[in-house]
Description:
37% of the residues lie in helices and 13% in strands.
Amino acid sequence: MLLSWLVRAAPAALLLVGVNASPVADHRKRASLDDFIKTQTEISLKGVLANIGPDGSKAGGVPAGIVVASPSRSNPDYWYTWTRDAALTYKALVERLIAGDTSLKQKIDDYVTAQAYLQGVSNPSGGPDTGGLGEPKFNVDRTAFTGAWGRPQRDGPALRATALTIYANWLIQNGGATQAKNTVWPVIAKDLAYVVKYWNQTGFDLWEEVNGSSYFTIAASHRALVEGVALATKLGQQCTGCAEAAPQVLCFAQSFWTGSYIDSNINVNDGRTGKDVNSIISSIHTFDPNANCTDATFQPCSARALANHKAVADSFRSIYGVNKGIAQGRAVGIGRYSEDVYYNGNPWYLATLAAAEQLYSAIYQWDKQGSITVNSVSLPFFRDILPSISVGTYQKGSSTYASILSAVKTYGDDFIAVVQKYTPANGALAEQFDRNNGSPLSAADLTWSYAAFLTATERRAGVVSPTWDEPSNNVPPKACTGTPACNTKTTFNVRATTTFGENIYVTGQLTQLGNWSPADAKPLSASKYTNSDPLWFAEIELPAGTVFEYKYIRKTANGQVVWESDPNRRFTTAVGCGSTATVNDTWR
Ligand SMILES: *[C@@H]1O[C@H](CO)[C@@H](O)[C@H](O)[C@H]1NC(C)=O
Ligand SMILES: *[C@@H]1O[C@H](CO)[C@@H](O)[C@H](O)[C@H]1NC(C)=O
Ligand SMILES: *[C@@H]1O[C@H](CO)[C@@H](O)[C@H](O)[C@H]1NC(C)=O
Ligand SMILES: *[C@@H]1O[C@H](CO)[C@@H](O)[C@H](O)[C@H]1NC(C)=O
């Protein structure tokens, strides 16, 4: 979640309202890490459930299966349901269901119903079949949020498909194949159709700020497509285009690797290093317990993901007061990215927990594989926590293997200890903790913070999510191809009475319409213009199934530009490549 979109423009003072200036944890006697985890796990599960309708204690009046991002209704206002946060939260709940907590089943069924409903709600990103699934958030009463926002965000459908696919597979194994097919699959199918259609287009990243290609979105898309194909087969259903798109998405994913870390946002000039916990969250999301340490899918134990872990962690060492004086090789508070200015930029609980989760997931993979390989890419990561280590493969049973595993476990626990240090006595997890004094900051009781605690500590205990079939889907094709353009012919008809020398143009939100720039606006023709029917028209190729805003402008003989009156006009192009549509407007 994250509101820099709006907050960027807000006065800085507003952002500091509610900051508790006193350090919270230092005065308390600290429980052992195991005791802390035990207590905090209970608190975190309660914290998640409290934020879900209809009976969550902090989600009064919220419909069944709707996850509120946080009960905070001002400074910041997170009283919305985000597709991403809800999906990651439910992924954690489905994992607990699989691990035996069947009391969660009704809640999960509520989620399926709620998401099926939301998929049908038209919103500023589009209608159900025209891009609306990429809308980042909705009002908690399931109506569209129509304010300005960084949209679309294309990770939501992929994440929801994954949460529901894990659930559908569990249903199939537990006598619920009919429910999986008739109730869950239709929701997944729509999400996957969205991914197939849009994976190769830009959108906003998980922090809702950067309009480009986000590694997290691409990694989540690949996973969702791969497991979607397998599920469709099991259910005797079609996942049109999924099997073809998946390797291409993996191919594109390779281009985020810089040689020493993942650049989390590409196809955009954002002026950042790209070191962003986006990439670590990607690695834990696409962790497959059956995978080797595959670089191509950025598995937690892969050399690339470990080098990236170091790069991202190191980017926060010198910038936060709470991290000062902490030696290399010891855990620090992790934020989103070092250039972050939201609430002045702070460590986040869920980011610090993700750093721990990657390490626990890596340990699971090494243990299963029976060896640890240190190569030139991962060597600096290992050297930080075990200075004597050198390049090589170390077999389970050897003392070096044991030393590495123990050092990684200690390092993972150290990240949990950072979270422990900055968690208040009542266990409430906000979004962030202050970069200097460690006090909880921003949204209180952030659902995602609690969910992140649950998954990190499950991995520590060796509890993992089911395989998504990574081992058979981890080789990118040699050459990458994007999706071919899918355009539609849109005819603009506008009745506009003009005087000699005046011309009519159309401009708007799309590149094809000149992005609101009068200089790049598209000219209309007056070849059918008559006194009784002052018709100006143009036939323009636009992306299919796309909602956009536009206006007509009039350029006078001396070059003056006259805009139509407000509001902007709005249209959704026809669905289907090569289709046509006509708009009939009258100049205002
Ligand atoms: C689309 O895919 C091609 C091939 O992988 C890639 O070069 C391009 O950057 C991608 N563009 C977007 C916006 O995803
Ligand atoms: C996002 O960037 C693409 C080009 O990279 C552009 O076509 C699109 O209009 C941008 N979207 C927004 C909402 O700024
Ligand atoms: C993992 O690597 C081992 C050794 O290279 C190989 O034998 C095995 O087939 C691989 N497993 C998977 C799932 O890729
Ligand atoms: C515009 O008019 C044409 C017929 O003149 C019609 O086919 C088309 O549906 C109209 N467009 C809209 C958006 O109503």
